[in-house]
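ligand=6-chloroguanine
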Amino acid sequence: MFESIGARVIVCEKFGTLTCLHTHTLAIEYTRLVVAAREGYNDTVPLRFDLFTLFPDICAAYLGESILKRAQESGLVSVRIHNLRDYAADKHHITDDLPYGGGGGMVMKPEPIFAAVESVLTADDRPPTAVEGQLSAVPIILLTPQGRPFTQAIAHELAQHDRLALICGRYEGFDERVRLRLATDEISIGDYVITGGELAALVVVDAVTRLRPGALGDPSGALDDSHASGLLEYPHYTRPPEFRGWAVPDVLLSGDHARIARWRREESLRRTFHRRPDLLLKLELSEEDRLFLAEVAEEAAENLRSQISNS
Ligand code: 6GU
């Protein structure tokens, strides 16, 4: 894979020197290929998502707009939505039932879910009845509040695959046999409960798609995002330079790119220190970053001292 990308990069470089007409397109394609090679993505086939849900319209609405729409149109990803109700064998297409042992709520029946996933993923992808803990070629991911908390690192991990199956839970949850015998992974999007896994599956599709080289118009886009560097993003400003007497910081108008880069780095560090100090502990910081953070910490301590003495 790397070799073929290498060859294509060389071809792009050659074209780049031959023609000016398509330089911009080539520059984007070039960056896309380099990023794909470095990150280990297979950029030659679209990343395919299979979403299994009882509410296909919810998923389709979000996937039909903006970056996700364009990523599908340009063949970077493909998303198929499968209605679990279509795989219920009975006359009324029932997909849930009462819990054994009593108690409130309904449980999602195993048969329609197994039938849907097994018919969509071909026999080559995965043995029809998986043994617990066995690795599948295609990750089969349940979206539930009991899953591992979703992070940017997990998005990177999932973006390495050619294909992902996402199963959205509803009601009280899945029959445990879905978890034990079909799923290979279970993801939650945070410590709160929402009505179903659809929003969570869309969160995963969105975060993973953004990482596919070329999904964002600007190839460096995904690198600047909050959490991509492990830091929160710096403040952004646009025109006008003054609004209601509030001015844009001078440095951003200075045209001095080195100073602007340093300012952005410092504001990212400052923001992360105040809002998410837990993130700083996980990072490797430069000496310059450390010195700056020491100043921020000293400032914060000074503020605290004066608050305490004024109270
Ligand atoms: Cl994946 N599903 C539901 N219903 N609630 C959640 C969740 C998922 N992640 C956090 N809360």
